[in-house]
Amino acid sequence: MPPTAPTSIVEFRRVEKRYGDGPVILNDITLSAAPRDFVALIGPSGCGKSTLLKLVAGLSPITRGELIIAGHDPTGSTGELAYVFQEPTLLPWLTVVENVALPLKLRSAPAAEIAATVRSALDLVGLAPRADYYPRQLSGGQKMRVSIARALSLSPRILLLDEPFGALDEMTRDHLNEELLAIRERQQWTAFFVTHSVAEAVFLSNRIVVLSANPGRIHREIPVDLPYPRTPDTRRSPAYHQLVDQVSQLLRSVEDSIPTRNPKP
Hints:
The protein is an alpha/beta fold. It contains eight helices and nine strands. It is globular, with a radius of gyration of 19 Å.
């Protein structure tokens, strides 16, 4: 009898995170993600959204609880995932193709494999015609596409994205949201996506996790039952706007509940 496929690829079990003797950053986080889930993380500034991604990536250890990534603890699962940061972090002296190839070279992959993988990744993000450009020759949206292509070159099972489109204009962001979901349909990774945009969270995800602050903890999880593929028509649908309103009101209530410090006399 064949083994049963795991129901979760990421599982937090009552996880707590603090740095040294400092305050608790994340508290009692219990959360799981199944293969192909697209989980959006939203919440007020300082609630630990980016810290949660770092825990998944194994960049920072948990303080208490248990975290299982693809059947391993986070330090043993780094080959399963890729990280896209807020800034593209491209090396300016390397071309587009050289930037995308860099993590594969660091893994000592064969030259033929690198060439084929990089070509495929650039095709996915629509940048093959600009393979020989340098970062200074690219727009902000194109630079972010290079960053995504670099992450996808690792063939991740889990893709972590920390506000990758936050600095872009609304039209470019919407277009890249659609491209990201089209790529996901082909590659079928699980995503954790940090954003401050409720509209973006609703458009991309099938689950939204709302975090509250001081310390960061899960306030509510909201399923997003909009059908895939998501298109510009999705943004015009009543169901989409109802969800945006629902999540916005919930986020506003979370932000309003944060105590404000009294100014010093």
